[in-house]
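Our preliminary data section would be incomplete without showing what the modeling component actually yields. Below, a chain of 160 amino acids is followed by its predicted structure, encoded as tokens that our downstream tools consume directly.
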Amino acid sequence: MTDAPPTTGLHHVTNICTDMDETVTFYEDVLGWHTIKRTQNYDDPGTPHYYFSSTPGGDPGTNVTYFEYPDAQGAPGPGASHHFAFGVEDEDTLREWREHLSEQGVNVSEVKDRTYFKSIYFSDPDGLVFELATAGPGFAHDEDEPGSTEIDPFERGHGD
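Predicted structure:
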């Protein structure tokens, strides 16, 4: 155990997009999130930096931000994010999200059993993979023999 001071949890995640208008449409119209701030990248003035939140107040832990770099080309690998997950209450809510996303024309996976939760996967306009995951049964749930439940790795951009 380390003597590091405690953290309060995830504050926000920052990503890169190639078209801020497409990203705004995705967050506002598809996900129903709120654009809570439009500013610039303080380390690269002139580069748009938008903040999206699942809550109108933009509370820490509910935010995803984007820098717009129209010519950016990315690929998964060291130093890059594979995907990030947002929580939903239960499997019924997960299935409602799956139906909603499909109705919005989003390619979304079937519900997958991940042992500790169930989830669906889809991508933003630039191909960044999102996961929506249920709260239960939770990480305290153990297999009879740890590691005995095989979980197929999710292939980037792959929907069922």
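The beta strands are 12-17, 34-40, 48-53, 63-68, 83-88, 112-113, 118-123, 129-134. The first strand starts at residue 12 and ends at 17. Preliminary results of this kind motivate Aim 1 of the renewal.
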